[in-house]
Amino acid sequence: MKDERKVDCKKIERMIPRYLDNKLSVYEMQVMLDHMRECKNCKEELTIQYMVSEGLNKAEVENDYNLLQSLENKINDSYKQIKSHDFLYFGFVFCIIAIVCLVIGSVVTIIL
Ligand SMILES: [Zn+2]
Questions:
Q1: Boundaries of domain holding 65
Q2: 39 Cα: distance to centroid of ligand 1 (angstroms)
Q3: What is the pTM for the complete model shown?
Q4: What residues contact residue 33 under an 8 Å CB cut-off, 6+ apart?
């Protein structure tokens, strides 16, 4: 169990640079953010890599709440993206069902 979590963390850590480059798929983002809600180490790793990508060192960042806030904003944006993606997906499925019902409805109308 403990080893499994370690592997998971390594997988998540590898996602971080791609997350910061906005190259993760919505699904990967969801996996990563879900993991970070429960894993402080990975969240910390994200914060550190974010600092590095912003070209700041830790001492600067500890005095710079704006940077931490902008990371929080980025994470919130990701959650919004995940939500709207789910919404689009269900919307799409709903449309297909509606079209199928319409087709069946018109076929039935023609036959009757
Ligand atoms: Zn982790």
A1: 2-80
A2: 5
A3: 0.70
A4: 75, 78, 79, 82
